[in-house]
Design goal:
The chain is of the alpha/beta class. The protein folds into 2 domains: 265 residues, Aldolase class I (TIM Barrel, Alpha-Beta Barrel), CATH 3.20.20.70; 80 residues, no CATH class. Helix content is 38%, strand content 10%. The protein has 15 helices and 11 strands.
Length: 403
């Protein structure tokens, strides 16, 4: 690889780190033909996954970090004094194929700044995916970050070659978008996400290929004054209206080129982590955005404890619940019990009355569970109502002295 290409790669791989929507789990099984290249499995791309199912070996780059837009929160905005670079279509294709052959990566995540026009930029990204599929028989995972202002036909064409498309919502409110990214328009973003949603549903009904792992979006956290409660309300609406596979939260990271126009400091990464935990409760545990937010104060999540535990502490009147009689919905709200454990509890209690040791074999969070659960041999009595319950459960364990 020549020095110029290495320099581009260094710049554009680093510039892509602010794009969070790069998970690839859920791609359909696909294997290249005799003269093709790459494969995917039902759980993600090829065979390297993190414990939560995401692949860790995507080539994650920008086509270019040049940009016509001047979004206040973006390090690659027009007025930012950063090193710029641009790949050609052929360079991205070559990098993907050669890196795959060397077992460096197992798929491609491609985003871009806006160059010349949204249509031109989207067309360049489309050409990359099309060349990989048609010219090189590449059957690995491809995720394209679509541009909402681009011609709808270009986005539809991209869906024929990409495993997943995503369009960044950017900011959680229209007012924030107008103030911090005035060249982007909320109606255009919503329209593009709606169009993509319709095409995905149509393709599934007609059993044809179009962005088979769905669409996702990204929301920047901490660049405006939006509370966690409002963020979760927006997230719930996105899942409902667009059937998104994932909403990604990206904590705004201040940097040397950050705009002074930003109204608030960036939140800690811990806030981003709590939002992901809250998102999990929204999607899989039957919580509403309002319920999750009520566990904190003033619309903000408690950064010191996870959202489910925070909600349980604020709703102690609903606990303890009997593991042998409670319905599934209530068991899912017990701190320390996950979906798999609850499903096993429901199966197990059909045959015997469950004891505390039985629950301990299903989860490592027994300390957290004890105050909220009744079993055949355990009743917490006054433990649930202790004023220092939070401290008792979250107190760090101390290493015993050896001498």
């Amino acid at each position: 690889m020549d020095a110029a290409l290495v320099t581009k790669l260094r710049i554009l791989a680093d510039a892509a780190k602010y794009d969070a929507s790069c998970a690839s789990s859920g791609a359909p099984k696909r294997s290249a033909g005799k003269d093709g290249l790459g494969s995917t499995t039902g759980a993600g791309i090829c065979h390297a996954y993190t414990p939560d199912g995401r692949c860790v070996s995507l080539l994650k780059i920008l086509l270019t970090n040049f940009c016509l837009f001047d979004c206040a929160y973006c390090i690659n905005r027009r007025s930012s004094n950063v090193k710029r670079a641009r790949f050609t279509v052929e360079e991205v294709v070559t990098l993907t194929v050669e890196f795959y052959k060397r077992n460096y990566i197992e798929g491609l995540f491609l985003s871009s700044g806006i160059i010349r026009s949204p249509d031109y930029t989207m067309e360049q990204m489309l050409r990359v995916a099309k060349a990989l599929r048609q010219d090189h028989g590449f059957a690995g995972y491809i995720h394209l970050k679509s541009i909402p202002e681009a011609n709808p036909w270009l986005i539809e064409q991209a869906g024929l070659f990409a495993d997943r498309l995503s369009i960044n919502l950017e900011l959680p409110t229209v007012a924030s978008l107008e103030r911090l990214a005035p060249e982007k328009h909320a109606p255009a973003i919503a329209a593009a996400m709606g169009q993509m949603h319709e095409r995905i549903i149509e393709a599934k009904a007609e059993r044809r290929r179009f962005s088979p792992t769905g669409q996702s979006t990204q929301i920047i956290v901490g660049a405006d004054e939006t509370t966690d409660g409002s963020l979760l309300t927006t997230t719930a609406a996105l899942y409902k209206n667009f059937s998104l596979r994932r909403v990604y939260f990206s904590a705004f990271s201040p940097h040397a080129e950050a705009s002074s126009a930003l109204p608030v400091k960036a939140p800690p990464l811990q806030r981003e982590n709590r939002l992901y935990q809250a998102d999990w409760l929204l999607r899989y545990y039957g919580f509403s955005a309002e319920e999750i937010a009520s566990g904190g104060e003033d619309g903000m999540l408690d950064l010191e404890i996870d959202p489910k535990f925070a909600w349980a502490l604020k709703n102690r009147d609903r606990f303890p619940v009997d593991v042998n009689t409670a319905d599934r919905e209530m068991l899912l709200r017990v701190p320390g019990l996950g979906k798999r454990a609850v499903d096993k509890i429901i199966v197990g209690r059909r045959h015997t009355r469950l004891r505390l040791d039985d629950i301990g074999r299903l989860t490592t969070g027994l300390k957290r569970i004890r105050p909220f659960l009744i079993t055949a041999d355990h009743r917490p009595v006054r433990l649930t109502d202790r004023l220092d319950l939070r401290t008792q459960i979250t107190a760090p364990q101390r290493q015993m002295r050896l001498f």
